[in-house]
Amino acid sequence: MSSANSAISKSARAELEKTRLRLRRGLVDYYCGDALEFDEEAYAELAGRVRALEAEAPQLRDWDSPTTRVVPLTQDPFPSRAHAIPMLSLSNAYSMDELRDWETSLLRTIPGIQPTYVTELKIDGLAIALHYEQGELIAAVTRGDGTIGEEVTRNIKTIGGLPHRLAEPVTLEARGEVYYTLEDFQRVNRLREKQGEAPFKNPRNSAAGTLRMLDPGAVGLRNLNVAVHALATPSPKETDWETLAWLESLGLPVTSPVRRFGSIDDIEAYYFETMNAREGLPFQIDGIVIKVDQLALREQAGFTSKSPRWATALKFGAEQAETTLLSVHIGVGRTGMLTPIANLEPVALGGTTVARATLHNYEQIERLGLRLGDRVVLEKGGDIIPKVVRVVTDGVKRGGLKAIEPPEQCPSCGEPPVKLEGEVDFHCLNPVCPAQQFERIRHYVSRSAMDIESIGPALIEQMVAGGLIRTFAGLYSLEASQLESLERMGKKSAANVIEAIHASRTRPLGKFLHALGIRYVGEGAAQVLARHFGSLEGLRAASVEALENVNEIGAVTAKSLYDFFHDPAKLTLIDQCLANGVQPTPPEAAGAAEGETPLAGKTVVITGALSQPRPQWKERLERAGANVTGSISGKTDFLLAGENAGSKMTAANKHGVRIVDEQEMSKWMEPR
Ligand code: IVH
User: Fold this and answer.
1) pLDDT at residue 651, rounded to an integer
2) What is the mean pLDDT of residues 64-79?
């Protein structure tokens, strides 16, 4: 080492040691003492200095430096982890009427029984699964896509109110919400802005961002909170009420207040009371959650494909904001529907900036009495799409404002639009309208459909404009040489696109059905249909009655499906796909093609008390490619056994069938 070099490192070393020490002392003061002048800002400054010095002189890096006391670089800081029981979402109700509708369909699943209900606040935060083993907190996992989340254990452990050890050595999985108080959220944002970073849009985003920080030391200074609202593993109690009390007795920070009601009518007053008290709360809530209290009834009520039937969220009326309507343009959907869209002066609403809102149709515009240049009130409902709810008329001069006229031509192809008998919407009926073609292809390749990731909107536009394809069926006869002629498309990317298109040929049948863009057939319905009919041919041949008889498929959807499969143009499109090698994978074998789980093609029998309802297990297993049957035979591969399994256990032993518990089975279901 040269003498100059060692001189630099000498003074650098001295400063580094000093800064590290200050950083450590600060943390000790913060966590153990009462000198609270040390805060995140001071931390960031000192940590930044230590990092800079360590970067200048890497030989001075030290495993015990406060900045390296994070995860070793060789280790994935947030490894993926499968949820043994999926983390579902909740259905929503936006009024007492909708809540009563929810109860009506709930009661159908538990005939003759009036359940009691537990209510909680619906905190606007981030869902978290907390795993305790023998009383020790061993893992905290984010929701992720509901099936697989990220382990953020080190960061969760910095949350003050969360015990690392429970009062008893129990093994359980509790679920809850990680959230910021509004005050801390604003504080974090002020600091971010100071450091030149974009502020977080809402407390939920910032909680998510914080949990993914690499330095738990910094996370700890941010005052995250956690509130537990559910037990995911089997409860030793008979009701949710008692379960929550038990969790609390173990030392967990159970969400509060929890209330119990004998009927929906009794909930009404509480709902409005909470709505009024909302502003005074230190954190953001977006409604109350209503859950059946009796656990046995929950089991009986079960789940839909997305959420439990035994719980729902009663949301508060949407937040509102006022702004100016600048202009209106017309959007063309994939069905040719023309939708007027408001261009607005950007305004903050529900945590995001809104510059556009759908006006739905021209009757709606008339009903609102909307004119260009009007001041309007926007509202964001439960979903993300904002809407214009009314015009501000009081004291506003509107005399010279221009009316909004229905379109005389399709903005894409120029054809005159048509309003069909009994419908309110205008449609462009031109089957080769470029905007529709574009939207249909865009839907086809989208992630929830055929998931052809390398084809983005720009490429679709180029391909359609260049005359390479007119429909999604055209994708399958594309050649690399054709793509190479497009702008910004090299040999390599052209080959990638062709490869991605090829890979889509064997997507699961449900995805293909969704991709076809059949009216009223969303992702969920498409999967239900795929599972029910098992093949495209089966579905194609189905009568309206057969379609209506499918669980979860209503009359309108059934008719739409029938029409679709009897429309020569649509059939040509499908046949073109098939002729070019599209071969949707039938549901039984879907797991095998997609993720190669060891369950593909295996026969499984379920028995005993499991931590989630049997139909749900059945569905998960089938998704992983297994056949689920009712009784054990020589053909059975596995017995999924919960607690108190009886005669099936004996039968399994007799036939030499392997017995598997829930945890192991869940592991097998992760895609490799
Ligand atoms: S119970 C099956 N209770 O809302 C789901 N969820 O929209 C049971 N949430 O992912 C969830 N506060 O993260 C429940 N008191 C509460 C809640 C709550 C917030 C979140 C939760 C869930 C989402 C569902």
Assistant:
1) 82
2) 64
Characterize 295-318 residue by residue with b for buried, 16 or more Cβ atoms within 10 angstroms of its Cβ, and e for exposed: bebbbbbbbeeeebbbbbbbbbeb
**Ligand 1 close to Cβ of residue 211 (< 6 A):** no
In this prediction, residue 50 has a pLDDT band, given cuts at 50, 70 and 90, of: confident
Which residue of 122, 145, 211, 274 sits with most ligand 1 atoms within 8 Å of its CB, as the best mutation to test the pocket?
A: 122
- Does ligand 1 lie within 6 Å of residue 229's CB atom? yes
CATH superfamily for domain 434-506 = 5' to 3' exonuclease, C-terminal subdomain (1.10.150.20)
Q: Which of 427, 424, 413, 490 is nearest to 454 (CA)?
A: 490
List the beta bridge partners of residue 419. 426
Question: Nearest C-alpha to atom 14 of ligand 1 is from which residue?
Answer: 229
- Min mean pLDDT across 207-216, 268-277, 661-670 is at 661-670
- Predicted local distance difference test score (pLDDT) of residue 47: 82
So what CATH class is 3-70? mainly alpha
pLDDT of 458 > 70? The answer is yes
pLDDT surpasses 90 at 615:
no
The answer to whether the CB of 255 is under 6 A from ligand 1 is: yes
Question: How far away, in angstroms, is 137 Cα from ligand 1 center?
Answer: 21
Residue 409, pLDDT above cutoff 70: yes
The CATH number given to 91-315 is: 3.30.470.30
Q: Which atom of ligand 1 is nearest to the CA of 124?
A: 19
- Residue 226: which pLDDT band, with cuts at 50, 70 and 90? very high
Annotated catalytic residue: which of 122, 315, 511, 648?
Answer: 122
Residues whose CB is less than 8 angstroms from the CB of residue 388 and which lie 6 or more positions away in sequence, other chains included? 325, 342, 357, 359, 368, 370, 376, 377, 378, 379
Q: If pLDDT is split at 50, 70 and 90, which confidence band does 5 have?
A: low
Strand locations in 243-304 (E): 259-261, 285-292
- Ligand 1 within 6 A of CB of 295: no
Secondary structure (DSSP) of 505-561: GG-BHHHHHHHTT-TT--HHHHHHHHHHH-SHHHHHT--HHHHHTSTT--HHHHHHH
120 lines ligand 1 (CB under 6 A): yes
* The pair of three-digit structure tokens given for residue 64, joined into one six-digit string: 């015990």
pLDDT at 652: 84
Q: Which atom of ligand 1 is nearest to the CA of 126?
A: 13
In the residue annotation, 10 being an active-site residue is answered as no
CA–centroid distance, residue 305 to ligand 1 (Å): 16
Ligand 1 centroid from CA 122, angstroms: 7
Residue 350 has a pLDDT of 62
Return the pLDDT at 552: 73
Ligand 1 touching residue 304 (CB < 6 A): no
Q: Closest Cα to atom 3, ligand 1: which residue?
A: 229
CA–CA separation, 505 and 523 (whole Å): 18
Answer whether 594 contacts ligand 1 (Cβ < 6 A). no
Domain 603-668 has CATH 3.40.50.10190: yes
Q: List the one residue out of 467, 475, 479 whose CA is nearest residue 434.
A: 467
Which pLDDT does position 395 carry in this prediction?
A: 67
Question: Higher model confidence: residue 199 or residue 130?
Answer: 130
| Ligand 1 atom nearest to CA at 177 | 13
SS3 455: coil
Q: Which CATH class is domain 319-403?
A: mainly beta
Q: How confident is the model over 25-35, as pLDDT tens digits?
A: 877 776 665 55
Which segments of the chain belong to CATH 1.10.150.20?
434-506, 509-586
* Ligand 1 close to Cβ of residue 150 (< 6 A): no
